[in-house]
């Protein structure tokens, strides 16, 4: 019987699920998984996870005390919720879960170190080994320096929002466990820049970027793992078959599962050895210069940090609203509607992928007709009846 593309991919690449939906993880059976604020926001609106959300909020209120503001309680609840979902996911998967440091700390090395230590302590209090956790940090120079300290303490890190070779080299030299270069977001930038609607998969700028990073790592013996992320189509995944890991949304995993045909391995240490690659000596000055010379990387890193911060703000708003309900108060008026408008930057009534800037997996799940825009109705349908009630006043 012919193997599916997904079955073949699993023989050469570790497949990671880009979703916070525990039921999807149970169905897709990845080795590793990841969480972030927009994934948790989506999952938190599903009825099956309401108990986790409510319990986490009430525990945060008890810890902070009655005098604490809703903002303080929601902020603590987000961190606890990330760990709560992480623990649930670890009961299903055999590998690791990535848990994100607050993106608003991306340029603060000491605060990022402290937050990474805190998240690990929360997992360890629950009996989870630190070997099963990746602390997710934006690949700024400050974030990379924080990861270097954490790695020396045995706290493994996943450096995200990675768009350029300079970021990748700095991460490898810092001893980072894993990097997540964003394939689809690189493609987005080049499509906008060139005015092209598409690129053939072998010429996809995101594919070429990850291939270059992978080959550099293998040529110079770096142990940091490369995990391609943020895919726009199946072709990108096929072109990166053989990459150490790939984190893929449920929709694209299903597409790979439903397609057959031969999957050719495109990345391997042997193929990398055949490439003439020059070593780059990395330091802060070189990093800053390469970053400045790469407008795609500099723009997408800034945009990504802003987007991840925005996703966290929308989750905290949602948690504040739920806390008010649990404490018998009137729900914060229009909270869910406010969340939609957090993303609808130009107020035109729909959210584009650029405006969203949170998790690509969540955007893809909400964009039910695949037209590249999320309407209030699509968001309501995707995030559940509770959200729908507040968003459109049903």
Automatic annotation (TrEMBL):
InterPro entries, alphabetized: Aldolase_TIM (IPR013785), EF-hand-dom_pair (IPR011992), EF_Hand_1_Ca_BS (IPR018247), EF_hand_dom (IPR002048), TAL/FSA (IPR001585), Transaldolase_1 (IPR004730), Transaldolase_AS (IPR018225)
**Which Gene3D superfamilies does its entry note?**
Aldolase class I, EF-hand
Q: Where in the cell is it found?
A: Cytoplasm
Q: Does the keyword Membrane apply?
A: no
User: Is Cytoplasm set as a keyword in this record?
Assistant: yes
Principal localization reads: cytoplasm
Under the heading CDD domains, the entry gives:
EFh (cd00051), Transaldolase_TalAB (cd00957)
| SUPFAM superfamilies, A to Z | Aldolase, EF-hand
**Which top EC class is given?**
transferase
What are the EF-hand domain coordinates in residue numbering? 354-389
Q: In which pathway does it act?
A: Carbohydrate degradation; pentose phosphate pathway; D-glyceraldehyde 3-phosphate and beta-D-fructose 6-phosphate from D-ribose 5-phosphate and D-xylulose 5-phosphate (non-oxidative stage): step 2/3
Signal peptide position in this chain? none
Question: Record's HAMAP family?
Answer: Transaldolase_1 (MF_00492)
User: Briefly, what is this protein's role?
Assistant: Transaldolase is important for the balance of metabolites in the pentose-phosphate pathway.
Supply the name of the protein.
Answer: Transaldolase
Species annotation: Limnothrix redekei LRLZ20PSL1
Name the gene.
tal
């Amino acid at each position: 019987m012919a193997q599916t593309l997904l079955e073949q991919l699993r023989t050469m690449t570790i497949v990671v699920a880009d979703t916070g939906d525990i039921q999807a993880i149970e169905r897709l059976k990845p080795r590793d998984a990841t969480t972030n604020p927009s994934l948790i926001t989506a999952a938190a609106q599903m009825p099956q996870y309401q108990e986790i959300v409510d319990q986490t909020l009430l525990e945060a209120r008890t810890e902070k005390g009655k005098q604490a503001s809703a903002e303080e309680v929601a902020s603590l609840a987000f961190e606890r919720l990330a760990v709560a979902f992480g623990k649930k996911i670890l009961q299903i998967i055999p590998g690791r879960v990535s848990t994100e440091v607050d993106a608003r700390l991306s340029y603060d090395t000491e605060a990022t170190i402290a937050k990474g230590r805190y998240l690990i302590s929360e997992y360890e209090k629950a009996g989870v080994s630190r070997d099963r956790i990746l602390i997710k940090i934006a690949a700024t120079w400050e974030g990379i320096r924080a990861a270097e300290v954490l790695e020396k303490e045995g706290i493994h890190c996943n450096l995200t929002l990675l768009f350029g070779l300079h970021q990748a080299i700095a991460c490898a030299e810092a001893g980072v466990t894993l990097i997540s270069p964003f394939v689809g977001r690189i493609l987005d930038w080049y499509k906008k820049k060139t005015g092209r609607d598409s690129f053939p998969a072998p010429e996809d700028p995101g594919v070429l970027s990850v291939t270059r990073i992978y080959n550099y790592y293998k040529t110079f013996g770096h142990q940091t793992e490369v995990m391609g992320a943020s895919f726009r189509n199946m072709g990108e995944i096929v072109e990166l078959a053989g990459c150490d890991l790939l984190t893929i949304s449920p929709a694209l995993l299903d597409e790979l599962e439903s397609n057959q045909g031969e999957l050719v391995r495109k990345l391997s240490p042997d193929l990398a050895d055949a490439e003439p690659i020059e070593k780059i000596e990395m330091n802060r000055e070189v990093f800053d210069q390469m970053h400045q010379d790469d407008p795609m990387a500099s723009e997408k890193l800034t945009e990504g940090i802003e987007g991840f911060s925005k996703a966290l703000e929308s989750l905290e708003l949602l948690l504040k609203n739920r806390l008010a309900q649990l404490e018998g108060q009137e729900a914060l008026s229009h909270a869910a509607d406010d969340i939609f408008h957090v993303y609808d930057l130009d107020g035109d009534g729909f959210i584009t992928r650029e405006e969203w800037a949170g998790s690509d997996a969540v955007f893809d799940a909400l964009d039910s007709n695949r037209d590249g825009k999320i309407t209030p109705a699509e968001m309501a349908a995707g995030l559940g009846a509770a959200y729908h009630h507040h968003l459109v006043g049903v």
